[in-house]
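INPUT
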Amino acid sequence: MRFDEGYSGKVFIMSHPTHEDAQAIIYGMPMDWTVSFRPGSRFGPNRIREASLGLEEYSPYMDKHLEDVKYFDAGDIPLPFGNPQRSLDMIYDYAKKILDLGKFPLGLGGEHLVSWPILQAVHEKYPDFALIHIDAHADLREEYEGEPLSHSTPVRKTCELIGPENVYSFGIRSGMREEFAYAQDSGMYMAKFEVAEPLKEVLPKLKGRNVYVTIDIDVLDPAFAPGTGTAEAGGITSKELLESIQLIAQSDVHVIGADLVEVAPIYDPTEKTPIAASKFIREILLGWVK
Amino acid sequence: MRFDEGYSGKVFIMSHPTHEDAQAIIYGMPMDWTVSFRPGSRFGPNRIREASLGLEEYSPYMDKHLEDVKYFDAGDIPLPFGNPQRSLDMIYDYAKKILDLGKFPLGLGGEHLVSWPILQAVHEKYPDFALIHIDAHADLREEYEGEPLSHSTPVRKTCELIGPENVYSFGIRSGMREEFAYAQDSGMYMAKFEVAEPLKEVLPKLKGRNVYVTIDIDVLDPAFAPGTGTAEAGGITSKELLESIQLIAQSDVHVIGADLVEVAPIYDPTEKTPIAASKFIREILLGWVK
Amino acid sequence: MRFDEGYSGKVFIMSHPTHEDAQAIIYGMPMDWTVSFRPGSRFGPNRIREASLGLEEYSPYMDKHLEDVKYFDAGDIPLPFGNPQRSLDMIYDYAKKILDLGKFPLGLGGEHLVSWPILQAVHEKYPDFALIHIDAHADLREEYEGEPLSHSTPVRKTCELIGPENVYSFGIRSGMREEFAYAQDSGMYMAKFEVAEPLKEVLPKLKGRNVYVTIDIDVLDPAFAPGTGTAEAGGITSKELLESIQLIAQSDVHVIGADLVEVAPIYDPTEKTPIAASKFIREILLGWVK
Amino acid sequence: MRFDEGYSGKVFIMSHPTHEDAQAIIYGMPMDWTVSFRPGSRFGPNRIREASLGLEEYSPYMDKHLEDVKYFDAGDIPLPFGNPQRSLDMIYDYAKKILDLGKFPLGLGGEHLVSWPILQAVHEKYPDFALIHIDAHADLREEYEGEPLSHSTPVRKTCELIGPENVYSFGIRSGMREEFAYAQDSGMYMAKFEVAEPLKEVLPKLKGRNVYVTIDIDVLDPAFAPGTGTAEAGGITSKELLESIQLIAQSDVHVIGADLVEVAPIYDPTEKTPIAASKFIREILLGWVK
Amino acid sequence: MRFDEGYSGKVFIMSHPTHEDAQAIIYGMPMDWTVSFRPGSRFGPNRIREASLGLEEYSPYMDKHLEDVKYFDAGDIPLPFGNPQRSLDMIYDYAKKILDLGKFPLGLGGEHLVSWPILQAVHEKYPDFALIHIDAHADLREEYEGEPLSHSTPVRKTCELIGPENVYSFGIRSGMREEFAYAQDSGMYMAKFEVAEPLKEVLPKLKGRNVYVTIDIDVLDPAFAPGTGTAEAGGITSKELLESIQLIAQSDVHVIGADLVEVAPIYDPTEKTPIAASKFIREILLGWVK
Amino acid sequence: MRFDEGYSGKVFIMSHPTHEDAQAIIYGMPMDWTVSFRPGSRFGPNRIREASLGLEEYSPYMDKHLEDVKYFDAGDIPLPFGNPQRSLDMIYDYAKKILDLGKFPLGLGGEHLVSWPILQAVHEKYPDFALIHIDAHADLREEYEGEPLSHSTPVRKTCELIGPENVYSFGIRSGMREEFAYAQDSGMYMAKFEVAEPLKEVLPKLKGRNVYVTIDIDVLDPAFAPGTGTAEAGGITSKELLESIQLIAQSDVHVIGADLVEVAPIYDPTEKTPIAASKFIREILLGWVK
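OUTPUT
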């Protein structure tokens, strides 16, 4: 696998040169081929890496420095264009390998469907894990226009895999009637519109548990993150997402992996979306990788 | 008239094929020729329709689905380029016809002057109606550089038509000294800078009354709606406007018509302005058309 | 000097034709040559002037009109391209002259380093002044990649000049570990992330003092001000900055000069950054020049 | 099939309301999922239709009017996102049906791979047809990173299907060494860099033959068509492509179908690419459909 | 009139401070209200002035320097927004006054309709003048959607005013069938697609005559001038237009006035359109004002 | 020096991993601090490298493949921001070292002033070399607003260094009267407006000589290269520049080094400028490095 051989492309600032003693592995999943509306998230990972060059290495939020965490940016998985099933298989293998090595997988999307094979791999290692899902969209569809492999389905699949009672969604402001009905009836947790306030209530209940966190950048309002495939008005601020990352860092949950998906740089000429995303990745590295 | 003949151009999602049994008529007013600064709102209506394709048909805010409301998008009124008076006459006739049919007029601007003939038609049917005006600008000028027909004058004209005590402005953060003086002295209501909080105070007083609502997209901060002719810093968030629409929906006022104006897509390469506007229109359909 | 001769280029709206009876002098410092990341703030002053044409002359925040204040926009200082030391010398001389004439210097940047010679000139006239510094970045570095003259150093230099106990920073959300350590250990004041709330606490303590205020536009979130060199996610809103300007205006401090820096228009195709900046300048004129 | 039922979306100007008496069928193939570099050509067909609204219906090049030709724009084939094989099957069926009805298929891409199933269908009806291929890229690869279904392979596949001696490429300025070697050795015709001049030589040799023409918009220099996935400097002008279309129209070949592919509007903020493409489609309708 | 009082806004480089001894008067006509498709040319004049700051004052084409010509840039005529008739009247009065003073009127549009009142004024002073019209569009319509005052009609009106045999159009590549038929039947001259070559043939025939030249920037291909309202593929290069200006300068015609219209900067984020336009204006000043 | 240690940043495609056996060294000079108008060329080198990823490795112009040439991309020289003199010293040392190693220096700018120290270093090794200068601007000023170190002066300085009779400029279309007078009087060669045709005349005269070539991307028309600091209408096409590179490659001159400068990506949202520039670099590698 690529991260065994070293990597010479773009990397997140202060990435270690090899993966051996890294606590976390950053990896990109440049896939956007099941996206129905606006493609382009395949370029997200590299633009996040580029924007990281403009970051300070120290965080006044966490009062920590990137040299306090060891991580290795392995570059992008070389996914085959236009082949969703083979792409998902490769992501699964990749995530599994990282987990087998006892390291924290920190994935960069790509469309949200990439989280699904990661969650399958996580489930094998941590059968009792809970999912924190931060997103504008419920992603609870059973299928999308006949395709069960779609960026609208991963959370539903996860409910079926680990039980809806282990799934916690935050910031949801868009979905089909059926998705909201499912959320209400199935026993999963869903906080509409808000993220930080409901997290304050939920995190104590998750105390001591293994938790995987998936963040879709479109939970932010398009004012803060226009560079995404399905922008949805009425979202939260960058400040609230930074606070939310901090709340999780300071809580008693055990974060075992995370991903940040759906950054599609082409729709944002101001570059504010990858600039914000790279800051969130820094905070995740400093706050969640322990 | 056009909406009698069916229409084959762009329409808002889930528009009914004919107007006969529709409760509401959506219509565009592609006029921007009295605008002094940055033209382009003539393209607003069609871009809002296009952006509606990216919307979910269900609203978690209202817990309603667009199939619960019957509406017909009649397309744009074919206004004569560069001829303000004839344009206003045509809008007046159009709005009057909708009202005569007992339907809810939901207009898409175009510059704010388009609201003036609508309000005249509304006044004929509902002489006792009150106006809720949500905007960054007071629009209380008597004339603009010698022209009484200007996008800066419609609210002043309405004060003269229905009495200032029946005019309620919200979110105002820009205007001439004379306009703010008029607001204070005339007996009209004006809430500066904020929308949702003052609405909570005003709505109970309007209980049972017929109310027309006009929204200028520039009440939003340019962070949320850069695609408008006269962007003004210091505005409200998309979230606050969504909340305000919901407050009106849940109140005891009787909304008899509405418009959303001044979306000028060319100034917003990220398309976040029409994306937000289409969501507001969905919420208005679901919450105000009864 | 240029402002003695009149000036025929672009000016801020309602600038007086000559400087003689002006209370304040607006002047641009089109310098960006020590900037490491994204240059372009040299075009900030003129774009702020252009955007001022879209402003109302009356402010509902201050309930004042620009005709209530006398100011002269002297245009840009003709700084020599690529020569930082000579540029700083010219700015020093310019600021000194304004202060000698007993007028309020209102500077438009340009990179943040331009504030340093102004502060030196201010110090000579008001040895006991305090600095209010509103910014995303601490700017407390001793040097930047070996260069002591850098846009990352002016606040540190000022601490050394007037004593850290006279320096008050607000809104800081980015910097090196050493900068935050210095802030904590040196005795200066630093409010992280927020501006308006901490100002409410600090202003009473500064009662009666001479205060110079320097504002870096990047204190705003990139949603509100993408047009800047080093955009940093997680910032404040335009509304909060307007409120902060008002808080200072209503306080008992004596503002003796101010600047607004780092507007780099090229990175903002929507022009919302200069639009907001021109409004802040109007508010400063109305609220701080007495 | 869709074109039997009428269609109410966007259409090319002056499209007939039904397909029955149409000589030509315009159809879109919104597919870009095997594209390795910059996706977005899925939006090409609709933006070409939109841009057609700005066209005159009369052509001074052909001295003909669009009312002189009967054509029906059937809209886009509803291709399944991210599923290349099923997409190609659907395009094959669609093209076959048009050909069975004796009509001229005029396809709008989408990535260049969409031409492959069309050419298979054309081959069944006209086993002796020749291909005119106008493009910056040779598209003669056997596979692309292991995938035989790729936008880099359709011309090679066609060589194998109909014999390289029946394939004529024009304007080629990019490809692998192996592709140019194949072009030289296989017996196919390839004109490098130029289109109009070599056409003047080749067309007389094709006298009386059935010819299908596929045009990749990237044969134009990026100055004329920046809105495409793989822009390549050194291309021809819009004028030369207009002249080339005219040369074919005035020749003695029998054009039996055509397509125009790879318009990716997102990369062209000025919209000049769809504006040019819509003009080429008008000229093809007027000049080639007989 | 404004140019009697001096003017303090933006001016073309090296404009003289007063008009008294100027040979030519530059004046802007910021009107775009009869434009059907994409407004924005009202901003053309000022952006051309701004772009002139980047020009050299010397022309290697003409081997002349701007200090060799005396001209005064009078700024924009303050046209009333949305009032075409009054606007045209004001332009007529303005042009008449310049001509009465014996100066060369050099107008900056604005939409092409602005040329009509100028040509009426020119006709009064020079009843025998000929028109050179360089444009992508024939502009020979009798009316546009019922409005005789439209940007599509000025050349037709001029044919009626001065006789078609005195009208020479160049570069035309778009129009209705009727317009081309009129061009052929009426006795006017029309060169399709090309400008420089046909000028070489026509200019000797115009030897010694008074000639007014109107240039629509859209004669250029959108590659060279995307910033215009109705971009039309297949146009000429900037080089050919520069050569054409030079051909006229070196000919034996007597140029008595000129205008350059339809620069709409908003559609060109690269600014290449006003950059090119300002160069054309410099060449016109150097080559035609004698 | 950096290229001795290997380099892990962005590199031009197919760069060798070490410099030892490389025939040519690619190096970036990210300097734009003496630029008077529009900065941003400091980002040119890396965007050219990025764009190279979209290039084919084989050139049908040269019929050669990048694996036929050995070159090492050493990354950017770490120039000190805002310090022109030290920057030039570092470039001088760097170029000297490459020349001392007997390798071909292929520099990427950066503003045109960066060529000056390279030419000084070249002169030391090849005192008899001739300069081919391809540019829109004469760059023959003695100083620019008092600064002798300016991007407008390098060709003049070179004339003084090696004698004007050894300087050959092509494509020049902008400059001061004095610069054109100097060109005419000094004995240097200058071809105005054109590049390829005059090269065909000049190259035979340079037979057998050592020649350094400096190309300013703005020799292209802004249609082909809008991403540059001082765009000048009326330029050549990408095709003509490709042809010119080929003419030099096929001639009997001995190219000893080259640079390509003034790519400023920020002004070109379509990326066509770095796309074209990367192709020119490929052609230079294939055609000039022997």
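end of record. Helices of chain C lie at 44-52, 84-100, 115-125, 154-162, 177-186, 196-205, 238-250, 272-288.
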